[in-house]
Amino acid sequence: MIVTTDDPNKPEDYDHDEPQNWRPGACPFCYGNESSTPSEIIAIRNNGTAANTPGWQVRVVPNKFPALQIEGDLERRPLGMYDMTSGIGAHEIVIESPYHHKDLSDLLDSEVANILHMYFQRALDLEKDRRFKYVMIFKNNGHGAGASLEHPHTQIIALPMVPKIVKEEIRGAKNYFEYRERCIFCDIIRQEVEDKERIVMENRNFMAFCPFVSRFPFEIWIMPKKHASYFCQTPVEQIPDLAVMLKGIIARVKKVFGNTAYNFIIHTSPINSDGQAMDSYHWHLEFMPKLTRVAGFEWGTGFYLVPTPPELAAKFLREA
To answer: How many domains does the chain have?
Structure first.
């Protein structure tokens, strides 16, 4: 990474991308439009309300235009020197609330906790399918972050293989563990506690900080303080603390930049892999506001230009 330290950007120096109403008309995710989506998989509902009707608080439906299809057999075959795999998987949408204009930071802590409960529930259910090797949970908020609909939602994709980026991260963590006999992420937490200047928020169970080697300005990681490999095995009693942390960092970013677009991705251990990464890997959430664009230099080198050092970014966020 190449970090600007002599004359770093301040929040007002960024021309950030704000979500817009780019697709007018009836929103299929809104309350009362339940018939506009595929039939719901599961929902948190008021007592006495039926599936695919109003009365829900969090609702999960299949993606109407899925990247992968759950039906069929997983087939791998050669194509000359290349390999081909059938597009088997699952692609679900977590509609976070009935409110079209309320992001996570606008909800009650208990409402955010309900959304996280749904993440866990769906990940554990998808893990039962032995064809799947990785469950990816991610949120695109705003057109600039890749969202095709404005209504706040999260996507869950179950994949028949472990993604390349995840494999590289797990391999690096395993190499560190074999050399040091310690989890690299646990060491990162210790270092952040010692340095203090990159921490944005913390509570009893979680810490949010701007990582030392940020790829993007104002990038934030949320990490459990106690070692844990699998996101979906987070103890139930810790979910309220995670909800406060996630809601808090989004609120701070919006306080600094307004209603800017952002992505977050949950990095977790693979599933159905006999626990190979349990000792060396540590799940975490990576949050990236859309403040810069990845261009030719980044694609060509793998280096990222970061106009604001993480220490300064954390200071702006703490003071928000």
So the answer is: 1
